[in-house]
Amino acid sequence: MALKGKKPVKTEKRLKAFFYGMAGVGKTTAAIQFPNPYVIDTEKGSVNDQYVDIINKNQGATFHTTDFDELLSEITSLLTEKHHYKTVIIDPLTKIYNDLVNSCAIKLSKDNKDGTEFGRHYSMANKKIDQLMNLLVRLDMNVIITSHGKVLYGKDM
User: For the whole model, what pTM was predicted?
Assistant: First the structure.
């Protein structure tokens, strides 16, 4: 059996980043400044005038979805089809993830139980997110994921 190793070659690295924070701090504005952005918009924020101008100036495009399977399909297309985009932005992943957790709870519900016992719904959702992350790592593009800042609970927490 032949060895599969190859001589290493130098390749240009691509940024993989996660921007999170409270609304209005500039996550989206910073992300869409990257070259040739392909914005996967889950909250229709990219329709705001200031974002439209920046995305168009940077020769970008937007795709609106709140469905995890559509998101996965679009990332797969970016991985397999020829295009001019250099940066993919998922803005924000929060909406997709929350919907995914809820749909997993529904899928796991049976016998008058809601599917959330022992956090099984989170485990199922996290496995799907892992699938997405594996595809994003393989992309020869900058990858920026934005997310809402964590909600604070109670005083001094």
Answer: 0.83
